[in-house]
Design goal:
- The complex is a heterodimer of chains A (65) and B (466).
- Chain A has 65 residues and is mostly helical.
- Helix content of chain A is 46%, strand content 0%.
- In chain A, α1 packs across α2.
- Chain B has a single domain (3-464), classed as Amidase signature (AS) domain (Amidase signature (AS) enzymes, Alpha-Beta Complex).
- In chain B, the strands form two sheets. Chain B has an eleven-stranded mixed sheet with strand order 1-3-2-6-8-7-12-13-11-9-10.
- The chains are: A mainly alpha (65), B alpha/beta (466).
- Chains A and B meet through α1 and α2 of A and α10, α11 and α12 of B.
- Chain B: It comes from Eiseniibacteriota bacterium.
Amino acid sequence: MERTPHMSIEVLIEIARQQGIGLDAARALDLRARVESLLARLARVTDGLERGRQPAPGGPPRRPT
Amino acid sequence: MSLPKLAASSAADLGRRLAHRELSPVEVVADSLARIERFDPKLNSFLTVTGESALADARTAEAEIAAGRHRGPLHGVPLGLKDIFDTAGVRTTSGSRILTANVPARDAPVVERLRAAGTIVLGKLNLHEFAYGTTTTNPHFGPCRNPWDLDRVPGGSSGGSGAALAAGLCHLSLGTDTGGSIRVPASVCGGVGLKPTFGRVPRGGVLPLAWSLDHVGPMARCVEDAALLLCAVAGTDAGDPWSSRDGAEDFTADLERGVRGLTIGIPEPLFFDGLEPDVGQAVAQAIDVLERLGASTRRVTWPHVDRAYTAFHAMLASEASAFHRPWMGARPEDYGADVRAALEIGYFIPATAYLDARRVQLLLRDELDMIFEAADVLVTPALPRTAPPIGEPISREPTQSWTRFLAPFNLTGSPAISVPCGCDRLGLPIGLQIAGRPFDEATVLRVARAYERECGWPTLAPMARD
């Protein structure tokens, strides 16, 4: 089975830096597995979803009719 | 009346006796303060006790009631507030080091409403730091402990509220729930916690965790008290752009109508997977009780609910990290380790993934609307387990998170309550979740009350009953 390459630690640190968040190499290493796990799950979250489905609007849910 | 008996009274019962001047608010508040002094060194549920102002407010309430100026069913009843609600002149820490010295100039609108209803604020309650977690093992103010077993967590993030209620330190509390933070402590501390419909209770003056998922709601020791507290705080407010336009309602009107004629949906998949055996047994017995009381039950399928937790996690992490970005940039070392780690992940979620999560949110709302055409409420376990020991790692992975049955209703914005449904073999409380249609808190409360009236599980922890 082909193994997905890990995100680069340097890229993680740079993405954080651009948002004003300091991240050293040790923290980035610790974070990488969690980020990859969440992104992998998110990549599948819309599997099979109709293309026309829109995001939920902000605010309270609809009242039942 | 002796101390334990007073502490065990419901807020509704206290309110009735206060109205008839059988009790004085001063006596009731003094009793709560004495219990805080006696029990809280073991529990660490209060971060701030406002004893002097509580007694002053109690004297005012006493004079008002004596003069015939009765404010309603909660006049003179003491409560505790999760320390995330702004309180004028009283520090509001959100359980953080960053806001240790924060003293708001004015009350949050919900706190104004509680004062207008005549309730008396005893103080501010411990919580998971910034409400971002489910244990209330707070690194800055110390862990809050579960009165049912002091070596276990009281849940969170509103853990101080759950613990203080279970120990009889207060009669009511107001909490917040972004992914279960009212229902987790209610479940593991044997209390009642209601997450109302999104927008039902305004959130101005409440530190946000995730704007799209945050709810304010009542915590209590019985269903009637939760309904009364909801009556006091519900209703539109211009300060919260996502507040619903509804006015106040009487959520107590249908409480005693019973469940005959109602259809209870038992949802699948997800909600009955991976349960501790005692939890599964207690929930099955609770469903049997509701059937015996005249409800019919049916299995219902929620097709994509297995995606709820991932969508929820993406929204929670993105929004929380956006809110905390200035502090995370300037003083990250002032966060506790778990909250800092949870916040860091949010900076790596692309906007496309966030929007996909919101698409799933609408899908789940639509699917739940369909389910509620065939069922009046859904009944599930609140949690797959009872309270874990303090220090046990808590997973945020979707299949293992102990809030996986709760967060779907934060996404849909539907009302959901946790009520006690028994104890496990260690004597730890188990919670039953009842969820309903948007803005139909009345039916959720009605089902919860019917079950409570039939079974009546004790809600004061053994340590607090002597």
